[in-house]
Amino acid sequence: MxxxxxxxxxxxxxxxxCKAFFEKQPVIIQRFLDAQAGLLADxxxxxxxxxxxxxxxxxxxxxxxxxxxxxxxxxxxxxxxxLGGFWNRLKxxxxxxxxxxxxxxxxxxxxxxxxxxxxxLRFATASHMVSNMLPDGRSVHYLAEKDEAIPNIPLxxxxxxxxxxxxxxxxxxxxxxxxxGELQVPFVPAAxxxxxxxxxxxxxQDNLLVGSLSEAEAYLQSMQRYVQIxxxxxxxxxxxxxxxxxxxxxxxxxGQLVNQGRAxxxxxxxxxxxxxxxxxxxxxxxxxxxxxxxxFDDQALEMKSVRFEAIPAGRIMFVPAFVVRASRGEQAKVSxxxxxxxxTRKHLLAQLKELEMxxxx
Length: 361
Fold this sequence. Notes:
Shape: elongated
Helix content: 40-55%
Low-confidence stretches: 159-164, 170-177, 179-184
Number of domains: 3
């Protein structure tokens, strides 16, 4: 499929050059770099205070004298690289920044073999983070509403039939009987419209597809973690954004994250409305009411909330008009809040309007 265009510049050429250069290395060197890339990728994506990695013993590098690829050796005492340790643990300082700094220093080394090794290791690590650490998903198409920067409405391509992709089913974790295969449980059609069906918690009507709200929130966190790894890969090697795999995964997960994040916000808003109605029936809302309205921020890519007071604290009898008035006042503030993107404001205003209408009479 065709993904949103990224402006063609020198960074695209850098990606193509690094990719071609890596593929020209002997297979044994490629495998060594891949193994080291796994260590660096873990340091980039987890809480790590110490890291030990190695440069290969030799690489193919562009000779400055003859302009051709020649095999260059790296001195043994230069191969082993140690980062972090006791002080990092004491200060709770993660190794990620030290690693980025070390790679830059190695790439600036006057020794061409060391410089080339660092460049190859940076490419291998970023590629590993994108291609190996993140599950691939379905080929999806998203539509974007007016003023939307991130397409997030899954397009029904008419392929939701009995003929499904391999990713349309998961194997249940259970003890298998001898001679029987794994039990495959297909995802519901609403989930199969998305990039990663295993992390879909709401359908198009905001109905909960999983067992609990906490499970839906865990799915959102998994998608946020997915995006975080993509972002950290691009912080390590900015040119990786021109990888077809990166574009495919970023397009797929962003649309799903925004869609499901907004659905979660709307679901929680309706829970708030039901809670207020329940407490009104019990007569337990006569001492004030403060609300925290959850919403999904499509710039920060996370759930946030706005707090406002509907009824001042004190012995004040609940009147639905108080909630209506408070909601309208908050809508006026949100509509003027330029810190929020236009789609986020629209999303939040719709939730506040739903709250208003629930108590308007």
